[in-house]
Design a protein that fits this description.
Blueprint lengths: L8 H11 L36 E7 L6 E8 L5 H7 L2 H9 L17 E5 L5 E4 L3 E2 L7 E2 L8 E6 L6 E6 L5 E6 L9 E4 L4 E5 L4
Catalytic activity: L-methionyl-[protein] + [thioredoxin]-disulfide + H2O = L-methionyl-(R)-S-oxide-[protein] + [thioredoxin]-dithiol
Keywords: Oxidoreductase
EC number: 1.8.4.12
Length: 207
């Protein structure tokens, strides 16, 4: 992600945004033409078509260069078969995101990054968290006191393993991300405890 080029997905997003008049079709998390992740071990790969019957969503979009809010995006939820998800995700990410698993504590990047940036879904690229809301929870998982936009995540009641918790998933593709707890810092008092493999960090290019 350096200078603009035809091979740069972020630049393609900005081009489409301008071409469509800044309208709702530019989704950084759901638009099939801008899907970024592909086969295992590949950061950027060929797009996978979204199922024609996938529901339309209204998410909030954010720019990669400085994180500014681009406004609401009318996008299609990413709907794939298990085989397609296996192609797109590592085995560990598939277990977490599509089977509601949990990575081992301290097994992935969990420290707050030195640079400003945001976290996107590893499955569909939906913007999830701003690094400015990340804090050290001491748990060994990335923790945040709020999502970047409430409508970009889904919170559901989770009663697995004999516990009552609130599970958090990506609104753009229904992938499991982690859980939210009420023992976080001010100003929300919440701790969004996420799995590292379910997200990727994008450093801002403009400080």
């Amino acid at each position: 992600m350096t200078s603009p080029s035809n091979n740069n997905p972020a630049d393609r997003r900005r081009f489409l945004f301008a071409a469509l008049g800044g309208g709702a079709a530019i989704a950084m998390g759901g638009l099939s033409a801008i899907r970024l992740f592909g086969s295992k071990g590949s950061a950027m790969a060929a797009a996978t078509p979204v199922a024609a019957s996938a529901p339309s969503l209204l998410l909030e979009c954010f720019a990669d260069d400085d994180g500014h809010n681009l406004g609401p995006c009318d996008v299609r939820k990413l709907v794939l078969t298990d085989a397609q998800w296996h192609q797109r995700l590592s085995d560990e990410a598939f277990n977490v995101m599509r089977r509601a698993g949990t990575e081992m504590a301290f097994s992935g990047p969990h420290e707050k990054p030195d640079s400003k940036g945001l976290y996107r879904c590893a499955g569909c690229d939906t913007a999830l968290f701003d690094a400015s809301t990340q804090f050290d929870s001491g748990t060994g998982w990335p923790s945040f006191w709020r999502p970047i936009a409430k409508q970009n995540v889904i919170e559901t009641r989770d009663t697995s393993y004999g516990m009552v918790r609130t599970a958090v998933s990506c609104a753009g593709c229904d992938s499991h991300l982690g859980h939210v707890f009420d023992d976080g810092p001010a100003p929300t008092g919440l701790r969004y405890c996420m799995n590292s493999v379910a997200m990727r960090f994008v450093a801002f290019r403009v400080s």
